Amino acid sequence: MGYNFYGWEKATVPAITDKYKGITTPKDLYDALKNVWCEYTCAPRLRNEWSKENITLGQCSITAFLVQDIFGGKVYGILRPGGNYHCYNDIGGHVFDLTSEQFGDEVLDYEDNPEQTREIHFEKEEKRLRYEYLKKSLVKYLDGHIPVGS
Predict the structure, then answer these.
(1) Are 94 and 134 a contacting pair, CB within 8 Å?
(2) How far is 55 from 38, CA to CA, in rounded Å?
(3) Mean pLDDT of the chain
(4) What are the beta bridge partners of residue 85?
(5) Which of 28, 53, 47, 42 is nearest to 134 (CA)?
């Protein structure tokens, strides 16, 4: 399967937990999340633009923190017009962004961005609830399917 998300070539780090059946690399996670991301997991301000054709829209922070749960590393944010941060992951120099496809051909700058913390992001209850929903939905999906990485 081909991938289009930023840094897919470096998305080869191993999982640090076996809590998510069949998820051994970030590519496995991406493959599973394609079946889990939905309008409800999308940021409320972008929901009216979310579609099956743009499944990564509005999913960045909750996805990046889920990646951190499974693979470790740090979450960074690119300041966007309007003052929001687009989150992505850096795991030991492996920089990748499972939700970059929402920007189409726009080239983002993945260098020298501020670290993002879940404490700050999850001060917004709706974001924390979307993150928890994403995690539960992923587990439910994985429990009902053949492990992605097999």
Answers:
(1) no
(2) 7
(3) 94
(4) 79
(5) 42
Cβ pair 27, 11 in contact under 8 A: yes
Single-letter amino acid, residue 83: G
CA distance 49 to 136: 24
Q: How far apart (Å, rounded) are the C-alpha atoms in residues 65 and 143? A: 21
| The two structure tokens encoding residue 121 | 């992001």
Segment 120-144, tens digit of pLDDT: 999 999 999 999 999 999 999 999 8
Among 29, 6, 30, 12, residue whose Cα is nearest residue 110: 6
CA distance 118 to 125: 11
Predicted structure pTM score? 0.94
Amino acid found at 106:
E
CB contact at 8 A, 127 and 62: yes
pLDDT tens for each residue of 22-66: 999 999 999 999 999 999 999 999 999 999 999 999 999 999 999
User: Edge-to-edge strands of the sheet including 94-96?
Assistant: 74-79, 85-91, 94-96
Whole-number Å distance between alpha carbons of 138 and 105: 28
